[in-house]
Amino acid sequence: MTNLLSVNNYHYRRGGAEVVFLEQNKIFEKLGWTVIPFSMKHAKNETTKWENHFVNEIEYGADDGWHNKFINAFKIIYSWEAKNKLESLIDTIKPDVAHLHNIYHHLSPSILPVLKKNSVPTVMTLHDLKLICPSYLMLNASGVCEKCKGGRIYNVVTNKCMKQSLPLSSLIFSETLVHRLSKIYKKNIDTFILPSKFYLNKFIEWGWEADRLIHIPNFVDVDLLKPNYQPGKYFVFFGRLSKEKGVKTLIHAAHEANIELKIIGNGPLEEELKILVSSIGANVTFLGFQTGEALHKVIRNARAVVLPSEWYENAPMSVMEAYALGKPVIGANIGGIPELIREGETGITFESANTESLSHALIQIKNMQDKTIIEMGKTARKWIEDEYTTKKYSERLLNLYLRLGARVARSSNMEM
């Protein structure tokens, strides 16, 4: 029996990173492994017998008094609770390999020396740009920002990158400075996994050693996502309603293109976006947060999925899910999105943050013959079946774990 320690701040489907974390756990459980999750306690968490080992919930931004705010601020940099609880967990069950996802702020890198001390081969999937950009997104009020390149992380304070707050930006600067000076990530993690080639190249460009990085793309369970190739009339966006997702640009473009748009998701811009739709008279329907079959049904009946991002997206799961459901994707030419779109075969790209360019792309797909849309959907689905399945993903991870010396039997690589 092989023991996998799987680590992430949250143990529920909060975002793309959590989807990968939880689905990866299921993959290895099906392979016969013992998967030991380590996360933060939260009311929305999926139940697990290991939850007694989880750290106590921290909700940054909650109005819980200055004393707790000070304690939580320190935990961002180094959580003694996470360190001690992981040590106790490792005493209970010795992991053969540890796979980390998002650990910033809630768990903190305090857990990394514990894994090193116990000689646990450790990998970390980088779902965002946090380890080179203190504010995660490489984005400021005017757009994409790379001012911190070359170690100039003081820019996070100068530009108040964290919610335009000087105190919060100063805290994140301190966190980044301490972690970089101590080299706590680089000294204790064996390999960093990048889901997109764009992120791989960006980390190398910013001075990271190429031999510590590996590109392993994300995945979807094609058996659970049944396609419908017949094109509908409307277009759909699903994701977080926040500035970097480009939904405001999409609404304007949808109005100009005179198309019907359905928006699935919630987030800080929801009310502002609804006011915008009302003010310009766009044919847009907000469906709120959807998941599972309810979400898939809306996508299956769409003409295409739109991804109007205005930041360096990594390897968005929404593209793969759309393809698996038999739908082409209209995607912004930014970050890792273009490498997931075969121009004219599985979708089309447009200039990020450019309303006219997106409107033209929407009109192009709107006027395209149904038989062409069907062929694009089938090509997209085939690409997923060939390259981005759970079986492909598990094979790639198993090869990496073995290379790092983890006690993994080759027989674990069984049929999915």
- Work out the count of structural domains: 2
Q: Structural class, judged by helices and strands?
A: alpha/beta
Strand order of the largest sheet: 2-1-3-4-7-8
CATH class of the largest domain: Alpha Beta
| Elements, N to C (H/E) | EHEHHEHEEEHHHEHEEHEHEHEHEEHHH
Distinct helical segment count: 15
Q: What is the percent of helical residues?
A: 25-40%
Cα-atom radius of gyration = 22 Å
CATH superfamily of the largest domain: Glycogen Phosphorylase B
**What are the low-pLDDT stretches, counting only 5+ consecutive residues below 50?**
none
Q: Please give the number of β-strands.
A: 14
Measured between the Cα atoms of the first and last residue, the distance is 17 Å
CATH fold field value of the largest domain: Rossmann fold
Outline: globular
Question: Could you write a compact summary of the structure shown?
Answer:
The protein has helices at about 15-30, 65-75, 80-90, 110-115, 155-160, 165-180, 185-190, 195-205, 245-255, 270-280, 290-300, 315-325, 355-365, 370-385, 390-405, and strands at about 5, 35-40, 95-100, 120-125, 140, 145, 190-195, 215, 235-240, 260-265, 285-290, 305, 330, 345-350.
